[in-house]
Every structure is written in structure tokens, then in C-alpha cells.
Amino acid sequence: METLTSDVAIVGAGGAGLRAAIALAESNPGLRIALISKVYPMRSHTVAAEGGAAGVIKDNDSFDNHFNDTVAGGDWLCDQDAVEFFIHEAPKELTRIEHWGCPWSRQADGHVAVRPFGGMKVERTWYAADKTGFHLLHTLFQTTLKYPSIKRYDEYFSTDIVAVDDACQGVVALEMRTGQLRFFRAKAVIIATGGAGRIFPFTTNGAIKTGDGMAMAYRIGVPLKDMEFVQYHPTGLPGTGILITEGSRGEGGILVNKDGYRYLQDYDLGPPDPWPRKKAMELGPRDRLSQAFWHEQQKGRTIKTDYGDVVHLDLRHLGEAKINERLPMVRELSKSYVGIDPVDAPIPVRPVVHYTMGGIDTDINGATRVGGLFAAGECACVSINGANRLGSNSLTELLVFGARAGRAAAEYAAAGGGAAVSEALVTEQAEAAENRVLALFRRTNGIEDIAALRRELTATMEAGAGIYRSEGSLQEACAKMAEIRQRYASIELRDKSNVFNTDLTEALELKSMIDVASALAVSAYHRTESRGSHQRLDYTDRDDEKFLKHSLATYAAQGEPRIDYCDVVITRSKPGDRVYGGKQE
Amino acid sequence: MIRGPYVRPVGRYSWWLSQPRYIRYMLREVSAAFIGAYILMLIVGLLRLSQGPAAYESYLTAVLSSAGVAFGLITFVFAVYHSLTWFRVTPKAMPLRMRGKAVPPAIIVGAHWLGWAVASLLILLWVAV
Amino acid sequence: MRETIHQLEVLRYDPETDTAPHFQTYAVTCQEDWVVLDAINYVKENLDRTLSYRWSCHMAVCGSCGMVVNGEPVLSCHAFVRDYPEKIRVEPLANFPIERDLVVAIDDFVEKLTSVKPYIISAEERPVESGENLQSPEQLAVFKQYADCINCLLCYSACPQYALNDSFIGPAALALAHRYNLDSRDEGRSARADVVASNPGIWECSFVGACSEVCPKDVDPAAAIQQTKIASTVDYFMRFLMPWRKQ
Prior knowledge:
The complex is a heterotrimer of chains A (585), B (129) and C (247).
Chain A: E1 2-11, H1 15-27, E2 33-37, E3 53-54, H2 63-73, H3 80-99, E4 114-115, E5 125-126, H4 132-144, E6 150-154, E7 156-164, E8 167-175, E9 180-191, H5 212-219, E10 224-225, E11 230-236, H6 247-250, E12 254-256, H7 286-298, E13 311-314, H8 319-326, H9 328-338, E14 347-356, E15 359-361, E16 373-375, E17 380-381, H10 393-414, H11 423-442, H12 450-464, E18 468-469, H13 471-488, H14 502-526, E19 535-536, H15 544-547, E20 549-554, E21 562-567
Parallel strand pairs in A: 1-2, 1-9, 2-6, 9-16, 15-17, 18-19
Antiparallel strand pairs in A: 3-5, 4-5, 7-8, 8-9, 10-15, 10-20, 11-14, 12-13, 13-14, 20-21
Helix pairs in contact in A: 1-4, 1-10, 2-3, 3-10, 5-14, 8-9, 12-13, 12-14, 13-14
Chain B: H1 20-50, H2 53-64, H3 66-93, E1 97-98, E2 101-102, H4 105-128
Antiparallel strand pairs in B: 1-2
Chain C: E1 3-12, E2 22-31, H1 36-47, E3 66-69, E4 72-75, E5 88-91, E6 98-100, E7 103-104, H2 107-115, H3 137-144, H4 154-158, H5 160-164, H6 171-182, H7 189-196, H8 210-214, H9 221-241
Parallel strand pairs in C: 1-5
Antiparallel strand pairs in C: 1-2, 3-4, 3-5, 6-7
Helix pairs in contact in C: 2-6, 6-9
């Protein structure tokens, strides 16, 4: 196996990975940076983010507002020191990417425009029409082309992190066009592989979001933190799960049930007037809105379709001109994929898995407990998102913590990396990783089918760990995941070729999905309270006594992960009630 | 053995037959040849004029013969096609913005048509007078 | 939901076993709202695990799944099965080497994109503390359309100039160069001119216009290239007429 040596290897070239690469190149031009991704950078799923990125910039806003919205939105499970750092860095990072050319939408006077998002006291979401993630990703990608020290390895599928004596030594990756494995030896590694929404059947996430980076870190003993918290976005198109941005509600869109009734007023989010009102009704937080849908469905007040129940997102009153200017992609997506022009008719929507709040356990620098291993973006859990991420914090998070992890890794690598370790052990581990892939590749007499097993996995997660969960549903999910893990050992590739073998990469992705889904189900089972996006039908209240804590799922080669808990960092906001709607006043 | 990526052959001379849009493009390009031929015809006319009335008479006879008229007609059709295609694409090459708003392509194209009509009319009037 | 059976013809090529690509036909039961990508995914999941192709977002923004369907370059996640009542013939994007099945090698594009310096170039870097650049909505509107390119490469697949001469920088890369040239925050036009205003650059384009016709995001690269031609022609004459003027 060929060894490619660099100072820092970054796995994943979406928003966080690209931002980290630029931070590395800028902080130390002498560093050799390997940017490894299973897809070309511009295919990364950051591209699909629509609504915008939060950062305090206007005079009517304040850092305190952003802090409180984030912490309350996260149901007090956010680490407040991390949130503090995040909100102060946010406007700087958003300004920096403005300098790099991001085409932010503007006010008439030339200043950057902001729009309101759910759960926000004051409008603070910077946006580039409704293609913010797309513009942010392409601006970052194009900016990386300036730096000769960033060497890209596009379409290299990372399979394992190599770590010896709790110090990271690099990653092993499959060059997809040749089928050859390579060892990327590096003093430091940054994981920036995004979330794992694909472990659910109905998700806004692209096919690539299979949690590979989370699983790689998890398998070498880094815990996955707060995995039970999965965000359902309230407005996805039925069938495809295509995201209809919260920006459409920020611009004034309303949600109605089958009777044309703005049902959110029945769920502590009203009264409906005056409208629009910040942090009320349609501008409530995502977890509450998705849960309200579930209740409406129980009451039989949703609309039946071939792809499950829906409610209506009505934008008609905005008028064609505003829809074209602010929400052009929403209009196009709706027309194409559900045959409805929002100018003339309401869009059918239903809650859809959107974001994993949990992820690789890191500190405020993006550092994990393995020396030289960092993580940033959706795959990481710092945590600023707590039990429910505030809409439009995630794009900002990519920038803030991508840059921070990049700088921390630069310092680590410039200092020579960790202590010297046995070269023989490093080689042994890298070869073991190579052999695992080769063994999978060569296995015969397998009886299990990759696609079928994947379907079972996603169905299990939806049934057991959806918007509402219970001991029974989670027990079943845990048991089923244990069974799927067993059966994975009996899969066999139907494609035994070397070049761009997607049967092989799907098998590797399925392994990641199993690891992440198991950690999620078991973490959810053990959290016997309801908080943010984790709602238990059998434990309906928040239990700060026992569970004002982060869960930590640690990998076990055999059997279920071990679940531990650690304290949440609380600096200035004591846990209180999450109040939305008219009760705020 | 891995053979490597496969490069599909492209017909050096036949590629333009593969899609209607390429044929339309070739027609547009070829139309320039007819305009050139017409200009050549006018130059020959000037040359003949300089050679005296008899030479010019024979030139006129040739032009007004059925072959000459057919040539003129075909050239006219291509000249119109040529102008039409180029008028249609001017908004792409020369987009106009007025008071920060893009001028609709139809207006730019229309202005060209109008200019053309006015120019033709003036020439006709001048010839008539 | 209505279902129909479609014959899906897919161009296959495995560099380890094939000397040339060949078509393989699958009968796929499609739902009426499916896109071509759904049909291909159905094949991969149920009929043939060896089929290789790229896809991710399924919402026409990541640019992975560009393919040629019945002769036309399209995003397969945005090409509806109902629009192809007869057979559906799927090929990889034209004008790129076929790596495997529907996967093409796009290294050439990435190199060309890099060569046009698609990033803000300014004489001095402003500190973040100085705040954002002011840019009016009108200034934004001047270049916004060209910033919408998703790099799906349908335009390269449609471009006969690129087919005949692969040194041509090509539509998307030139459109992105134009996007930065038009940005009020940028001062890099002359730095890009070496590559952009050259023979393999804009002057290789004969304005077939196919790129703009197939563009799924209405970027209109043909317009970008023609505008660049005019601008660089003006530059050329200005150098003689006003030699004292700053480049």
C-alpha cells in the first residue's frame, strides 16, 4: 500500500473541511495539506443548505440575543462556553466569506441583508437568496484553489483512522478510480464528513451522508456525543424529502392543516396575531413544529397523500415577485418535484430528518480525546446545538469551527505532532485497515444483500427512533440493530471490479450507518426524559436532575456501545422554560 | 488488466449532423457565405460599371436572368436568416441594464428589428427618389 | 400511484473487461413521478449491483448526476421518466473519457476551472474588522446569474468546440471567470486575461449556444463568453487609444 505523507489530512471537503483547509494554509503556508473527500468538493452536502447563516450584525440585535436563542433552542444542552465563542466569531466568519466573494443578498444601501428564522428573537440570518449553502460551498471551494499547499484527493473514500497509543497517525483511503488503498500519513487529521441523515429513510440529506467520519472516529474509541438528538425539519416535500427552507416561513409563509387552520396556535406557539411575530407560530423552533405535526396527524387533521400525511405551506400571499426574488429555488423545486407552483397553490410538506445534533465528541478547539484527531461541522459535537439546533446556526458552525479546528491542527502539526510511536505498530494498523477492505472485497458465499439490509436499517430507525420514541420502540430498534450488525458479516459484494466500484463503497457506507445508528438507538434508549428533539412518550418531561448531561456512546467490538454521561457547561444561562409565541411578552 | 478511461470518437466532419441544434448553428454559419457571395456579386457589378455601359448591361442581364433571380432569392433568404439569428443572440452578447434592472431581451431584439426596418425604408426611399 | 414499465438502456463500460462501451437494457417498473435517477437507483438496488454512477442530493444542486438521456445532457435527478414515453437511453456525459459505466473523468474541467482563478483577487486584503464590502443589489444582480453554476458539466457535454478541441477552457469555467470579473469587489480581470482572453479561452468559442440551452440553472455561459469577447476587444483597442490608462 502506497503511503502519502502530509502534515495535516482533512477528511471531507464540504463547508467545514474547506474552511479548515484555508485556515491551515493561511496560518502556516509551509504545511502540506491533504484534502481527502469521497466526492468532489462541490458535490458535498453543504451545497443543499438553503435558508442562511446566523450572525449578529445589525444594530437591533445583540450577542446576548444570539446566545439566548441558541441555548434555549437547544433546550439547555449546549455547552455555553462554546456558544459564547461561536456567537462572537459568527459575524467575523460571515464577513470573511463575504470578502472571499460570497454573493450575500443585500439591502438597498449595499449592506448585507438578514431574514428571520425559527426560534430567533431578532432577524439575523444572512442569506444568498435561497441557495446559501450552495454559494457558501462554491465560494470556499473556489477560494481553496488559491492555495498551492492544499492538495486535493477527490473521490478517495476514507475507511479508517490509524491511531497508535491514542495518537492519530493518518487515515487509510480507497482511491475510487483505481480501487487501490492508500495510507495518508499525517501528524494531524481533521474529520469533516458531515452528518448521518441517510440512516433514516425519509431525509433531506444526500446519498453521501452516511456518517463515515463519525463511524471512523467511533471505531477507534472516540465517543459519539448526544447521538439521540436528531432534527426533523418541519417542511420537506413528500416522497423525495427535498428541503423547503425555513426561509420560506421567515419570509411570511404559513402552515395550515386540512381545514386550512393554522394549527400551530394549538401547541403553545400562538396566538396567530400579530403576524409575523418572531419566535412564534411558523417561526417557532424546528423540534416544536415537527412535534406539532405529529399531534395533528394523531388527531386526523393532516392531509393524506401517496407519500404519507402532509400539511400545507402557503406562500401565495407573498406574491410572485417576492417569491422569485427571495425563494426562487423553493418555487422551482416545488414546481418540478410535486407539480405545484407556490404562487398559485400551497406546497404539501411533512417533517423530514434533517440534521444530527450529536457527533464526534470534541472540545471547543475541535480536538478529540485522541491526540492529533480533530473534528468539525455536522460530524462533530462541540456542542453548540444541544438538543435542537437553531435554524441557520449550522452553516455558521461550519465556518467557525472549521477554521478553529484548522488552526488547532496547524499548531499541533507545527509542534511536530504527538510523541513518537512505534512505526511497526503504525504499519500494522494501516495494513489491518487495508486487509479489512480486501477481506470484504474477496468474501464469497455471502447471503446478505447490501441494499436490502440498508432498507431494514432505515426502516428500523424510523419506526424506533422517530419524532416520538418510547422504551418499547427503542428496545426494538436496539435489538434489530444488533441483528443487522450480525448479518452485515454475511454480506457479499456482487461487483468484484476495481474501478469506481460503488458496490464496495456502499458496503463501506453501510458499515458506517450501522455503527452510527446503533449508537443513536442505544443513546436514545438510555435517555429517559424528553428534551428538544428527543421526545419520549413514556418520559414526557425534561429531567434536569438526571439528564442535564451529554451522553457519550463508546464503541464496543461486541455488543452494544457503553453509554456514559458528562456535564454540560453552563456559564450564564440557567435551564429554564422554552417559551415561544405570545407568552414571551 | 485495467484498460483505462474510454475516449469516445468524435466525427471530425460529421459531428454537426448529430443534433438539430448543431445543424441550426451550421446553417447560421453557412448563411455568412451567401452574404459574402452577394457582396461579391455587387463588387462585380461595380467593376462592370467601370468598364462601360455595354459591360454593365450584360451584367444586369445576367442578374435579371432566372438563374440570377434564383440566386438573389436564396441569398435574400439566408441574409434574413443570418440577421434574424444574430439579432436573437444580441441580448446575450450585449445585455443592457437601465436603472439597475436588466432590459428585457425582447426589447433589445425588437430594437434591432426596428433599426433594420427603418434603415431599409430609408434606403428604399432614397433609391426611389 | 400509476406505474409504468420502461426499457432503460444504459451504456456500460468496465475498463477491466470491456474493450468498448456497450448498451445493457433493464426493464424497470417506474412510478409516474419518478426521475431517471430513481430508475437507475432501482436498477442498482434490485437488478444489478455492478452499475456505477454518481449521485447525491436528488434536488438538482450538487451537480453529480449529469448524464445524457436520449441524446440530451440532463441532470438525471431532474429528468422525469414521464417525459420519455418510449425507451430511456442513458449514457455518460459526452466529451469526457468514460471511467466506468456512467462515471466520467472530469479532471480536465477541474484543471481549467483552477486556471481561470475563480476567486476574488484584490490589491489588498481587507481585515475582517473593517466590516463587509458594500455591494448594492444592482451590483449583485450584474454577476449573480453567473455565480449560479453548479459545475454539473452539462455544458461541456453539449459543446461541439470542446468535443473537437479539448484545450478549450469551456463554458462553465469561462462563465465563472466572468462572474468574478463582474463582481464589484474584484480587481482580478487582468490577472485572468492571460487564460480567459486567449485562443483556448473565449476565442475558441464560435457561439453555438448549446451550453446555454442545456444549462439546468440558467447560467447562460454563452452570454458570459460573448460579453467577455466584447470586453477584451475593447481592452485591446483601448491599449492603443489610451496607453496611459491603467490595465
